[in-house]
Design a protein that fits this description.
- By secondary structure, the chain is of the alpha+beta class.
- Helix content is 56%, strand content 9%.
- It is built from eleven helices and six strands.
- The protein has a four-stranded mixed β-sheet with strand order 3-4-5-6, with helices on one face. It has a two-stranded antiparallel sheet with strand order 1-2.
- The chain is elongated, with a radius of gyration of 26 Å.
- About 25% of the residues have low confidence.
């Protein structure tokens, strides 16, 4: 399942890097020549269907690969596919119309839109890759996807960001189509031009309709959205070397609007909190309940520490050692999707310990050979 999710992600990137530009080129040639050959129409239709299907299939496979997310029904997959089919169709037709008349300005528009979308994604502080430059390259690739359709890459409510994106997309489609209608060549009759304009408008309207259908009736989290619930679930962790572990953890779904699955992970470095004060009442009880299960990592003070150390009253020598978090898995050797859950709980544990200890906790991973490997700075395992 993990491999299937990774492969689907690669196919999604391949589709928007290859099929989407080819679709715009094919439509532009057909509009410029004012003729549509059967093979051209079939090829363009296949490209459009592949783009819509890759987004819908990726969302389904990603949800199926995560135990903390409800699976997506086939009705929801069909609704999401129709949503992206019509919105991408309207977008590509508007691109082809404008490119058939203004080739140079179309290139300037695409580059400008891509730069704006890329900076917007970078501003959202995604964390998908291991290094800063790899993250920037990933954001640049996602910026190409944003030229054609919406793709959520950040955890949390996405209603405002999605509304802003589709508002900008609608304005751009109207401007591109209006510019083509005004400066089109004499070989295109007024009646045919009006049909094309209505096609773009109706396609975008149908895409918006199916998007509302998906979020209002077919979203997997719809029945439980906004409700307070929490429970312990078992999540299998399969390491690259065949190491199998079990995480028992209490997972509380995020509150807010319904959002699609995203590719995200905790920050690569976790800065030390300053003057956090006392923990929120009830937080220690939650952590104690979570520790009553069998987590992958265990939190315990070092052998030279004492209970007084946790209350910041220990001696200076002992305070320098601080608590130790031992993770019974090799570092960066287990699936990235399971690492999402491990990192989330590891970050919560570090924040809790930093409020009770004068020294940041030490992190020890199991070595692939023997013994343990210690890291002095928290880094994401993805």
């Amino acid at each position: 399942m993990f491999e299937s999710a990774d492969i689907t992600m690669l196919r999604l990137l391949e589709a928007f890097l290859k099929s989407a530009p080819q679709l715009v080129l094919q439509l532009s040639i057909m509009i410029h020549g004012n003729t549509v050959l059967p093979l051209q129409g079939l090829s363009a239709s296949a490209s459009l269907v592949s783009l819509a299907w890759m987004i819908a299939s990726y969302q389904k496979v990603l949800r199926d690969s995560r135990d903390d997310k409800l699976p997506m029904s086939y009705k929801a997959v069909i609704a999401q596919m129709l949503w992206h089919f019509f919105t991408i169709g309207a977008r590509t037709v508007a691109f082809a119309l404008f490119a058939s008349v203004f080739q140079l300005y179309f290139g300037i528009f695409i580059v400008s839109h891509w730069c704006i979308m890329t900076f917007w994604i970078i501003q959202g502080e995604t964390d998908f890759c291991m290094s800063k430059w790899e993250e920037i390259i990933y954001n640049m690739v996602v910026g190409i996807i944003y030229i054609f359709c919406w793709f959520n890459v950040k955890e949390g409510p996405s209603r405002f960001r999605m509304t802003l994106y589709y508002s900008v997309t609608l304005a751009e489609n109207v401007a591109l189509t209006a510019a083509w209608y005004t400066y089109r060549g004499p070989q295109t009759a007024d009646s045919s031009a009006l049909v094309v304009v209505c096609l773009v408008a109706c396609s975008f309207a149908l895409g918006t309709f199916f998007m509302l259908v998906y979020y209002c009736w077919l979203h997997p989290d719809g029945p439980v959205l906004g409700s307070q619930w929490a429970g312990c679930v078992d999540e299998s962790v399969v390491g690259a070397g065949g190491v199998v572990g079990v995480i028992d953890a209490c997972i509380t779904p995020s509150q807010g609007s319904q959002t699609d699955m995203v590719i995200t992970s905790p920050p690569r470095t976790l800065p030390r909190t300053k003057d956090t004060g006392e923990p929120v009442p009830g937080e220690r009880d939650k952590e104690r309940d979570r520790d009553s299960c069998l987590p992958v990592f265990q939190v315990r003070p070092s052998p030279s520490s004492s209970p007084a150390l946790l209350h910041r009253t220990s001696s200076s020598s002992r305070a320098q050692e601080g608590p130790v978090i031992r993770i019974d898995l090799p570092r960066k050797r287990y699936p990235a999707w399971d690492a999402h859950f491990i990192d989330r709980r590891l970050r919560k544990t570090i924040l809790l310990l930093e409020t009770t200890s004068a020294v940041s906790p030490r992190i020890q991973y199991r070595s692939s050979m023997m013994g343990s490997k210690e890291v002095f700075e928290y880094e994401t395992t993805v």
